[in-house]
Amino acid sequence: MRIVIAEDDALLREGLALLLRAEGLSVVATAETPGEFLTAVETFRPDVAIVDVRMPPTHTDEGIAAAVEARRRLPDLAVLVLSAYVEPAFATDLLTQGSAKLGYLLKERVGRVEQFLDALHRVAGGGTAMDPEVIGQLFARTRPDSSLSRLSPRERDVLALMAEGLGNTAIAEKLVITEGAVHKHIRSIFAKLGLAPDDRADRRVTAVLRFLESAR
Question: How confident is the model at residue 26 (pLDDT cuts 50, 70, 90)?
Fold first, then answer.
């Protein structure tokens, strides 16, 4: 796995590089500005980019914008975004481009090495990795009048784990229920959110996006 790190905090940037190299992963470049990051992506064509949300010059959404541009230039690039805070709009911006090979984690998750590496490998493998703390806080922000209010507590649990990027088997293990029960809950979620079968859209992604949008 070839990795590029875009992070303007030198301590975190070098710490991430040391951690990943100690795990036998190849960090091919590090960058402290969006411009340096995009140059590194074009030069090294990495498998994964780890990108800070807030980067110079304004420290607002430059990291997200750079990640979007990097995916435009290198469509197969997996992107794991790091943020110091829960920022629903940025999570939504990521998923609107599709859920494959995308992740959104709080920076504090890096210190939990096993969970961080699991998210990294999940994203590199084509999946999605949303920080559980992000999901928990977003659920707390959902509007009472949103369509999500029709979901049962168990359906909300299932949707939260879907938003983290877990598949049906992993959801069943987390909730200690059968995969058949998971399928039933997901069908009910789709029905309550008005998501009819449609080959043009991934209903799992659409359901997660509906959830994220409700928290904005």
Answer: very high
Which pLDDT score is estimated for 172?
Answer: 95
Encoded tokens for 134: 């992000």
Tell me the CATH number at 62: 3.40.50.2300
> Domain range spanning residue 192?
136-214
| Cβ within 8 Å of residue 34, ≥6 positions away | 6, 55, 56, 62, 63, 65, 66
The token pair that represents 136 in the structure block: 């928990």
Rounded to whole angstroms, the Cα distance separating 63 from 42 reads: 16
Phi, psi (5° rounding) for residue 62? -60, -35
Mean pLDDT of the region 177-194: 92
Bridge partners, residue 52, by sequence: 82
What are the tokens at 30? 């590090």
Helix (H) or strand (E) holding 203: helix 203-214
Q: Which of 40, 211, 194, 59 is nearest to 50 (CA)?
A: 40
Q: How many folded domains does the chain comprise?
A: 2
Reported as a pLDDT band with limits 50, 70 and 90, residue 96 is low
- Which of 64, 97, 130 corresponds to the end of one domain? 130
| Residue pLDDT, tens place only, 115-174 | 899 889 989 998 878 877 777 766 666 666 567 788 899 998 998 888 777 889 999 999
Asked which of 130, 155, 170 is the last residue of a domain, the reply is 130
Residues 163 and 123 in one domain: no
Mark whether 17 and 116 lie in a shared domain.
yes
pLDDT value, residue 203: 76
